[in-house]
Amino acid sequence: MWRQEMAQANIIDNMADIELSLVVPVFNEEDTIPVFVKRIKPVLDAITQEWEVIFVNDGSRDTTLKLLRELNAGERRFKTLNLSRNFGKEPALTAGIDAASGRAVIPMDVDLQDPPELISEMVAKWREGFDMVLAVRSDRASDNFMKRWTAQMFYKIINDLSAVDIPADVGDFRLMDRRVITALGQYRERGRFMKGLFASLGFNQTVVYFARPIRAAGTTKLNVFKLWALALEGIISFSAKPLKVWTYVGLTSALIALVYMLVIIARIVFFGISVPGYASMMSVMLFMNGMILTGLGVIGEYIARIFNEVKARPIYIVSENIGFTEQVSQPALENQVHAISEA
Ligand code: UDP
Ligand code: MG
User: Fold this and answer.
1) 275, part of any domain
2) How much is the pTM?
3) Which residues of the chain have pLDDT under 50?
4) Within this chain, do residues 297 and 336 fall inside the same structural domain, yes or no?
5) Domain contains 232
6) Which of 111, 112, 114, 224 most suits a substitution to test ligand 1, by most atoms within 8 Å of the C-beta?
7) In sequence order, which ranges of the chain are alpha helices (DSSP H)?
8) Which residues neighbour ligand 2 (ion) by CB within 5 Å?
9) Mean model confidence pLDDT for the chain
10) Do residues 116 and 216 touch, judged by C-beta distance below 8 A?
C-alpha cells in the first residue's frame, strides 16, 4: 500500500481536495494539446472547480514540454509529469495515475478521440455511486476495416484464453473511483496491459456509450508493431494457456507417431523391407521442426517477461514535475528509484 505510505509521509497531502483528475499521456503532441485544452476546460469547469489535468510527457521530441510548461504558468491546474524518456503509453498512464490525487480519476487520450463531453456523463454515474464507469464505443466507424477486424479477433482470443473478462470496444477511457485507484496501485508488474489490469479489478461498474471520432490533429503514435506488441503483452500476461497447449500438441503428435510406427512395423513384418519416400520424410521433419520452434518461441515470450519482472526495474522514471504542490515520487516500493525535484 505504497500510496498510504506516501500520504502519511506527506508526499501526497491534498488527496481530499481534488475531486477529479484527468490523466493524459502525451508523446509528440504539440498540434493536439492546444485543441485539447480549449475543449476540456469548459467541460471540467461545469463539473467542479476542484479538478486537475495531469499530462504525462512521454519523452516527446517536439515542443510538447515547452507548451506544457507555459500551460501550467497560465493555469495551475494543468500539471505535468515529465518522464526521463519515452516509456510507452502504458507506463506513462501508470505514472499519471500514481500522481493523481482526485477522488475520481479518468485516463484519456489527448487527441480528442475520447470525447471530453462524455466526462460529465461519467461523473454523473459516479455520483450515483458507481466505482467504475466504462466508456464503450458504440461504433468503430472511425477505424478502417483492418483495424476493426484485428480488434475483434484480439478480443475474441484474449477472452477465450484468459480468466479475466476484458470487454470489447472499451479503451483506457473510463472513470475510476479512488477505491479502484488504490486497488490498482497494488499492481506493480512491469508488463502493463492497462485494459486487462483495469478489467481485473472488478468493483461496481457501469457503462456509457459514445461514437469514437477521428484524431483531432497530428497522427497516430501507435503503429502496427506497437499494437502487435500490446496485443501479445495482453494475451501472454493474462493467460498461461499458450504455454500449456504445447503439452497437448506434443502428446498428440507423439500418439500419431506411435500409430504410424506400428503401421510401418506391421508392413515390414508382412510385406518385407520398404524404403518410405523422401517427400513424406521431409514434410514430417519440417513440420515437426516448425512446431518445436514455435513452442520454444512461446516459452521464450514467457521467459522474457519473467526476466523483466525479476529485474524489477521501475515502471517509469520521472525527471521533473511541473505544477504539483507536493513532491511526486516514484512509488515507495523498496526497490524503486526515488524521485526527483520540483520544477
Ligand atoms: N502516447 C504516449 N506514448 C507513446 C505513444 C502514444 O504517451 O509512446 C499517447 C499519445 O500521445 C496519445 C495516446 O497515447 O495521447 C494515444 O495515442 P494515439 O492516439 O497515437 O493512439 P491511437 O488512438 O491511434 O490508438
Ligand atoms: Mg488516438
Assistant:
1) yes
2) 0.78
3) 1-2, 6-11, 13-15, 330, 332-343
4) no
5) no
6) 111
7) 2-8, 33-47, 64-74, 89-99, 118-128, 145-161, 178-184, 194-199, 224-238, 241-271, 278-311
8) 109, 111, 113
9) 84
10) no
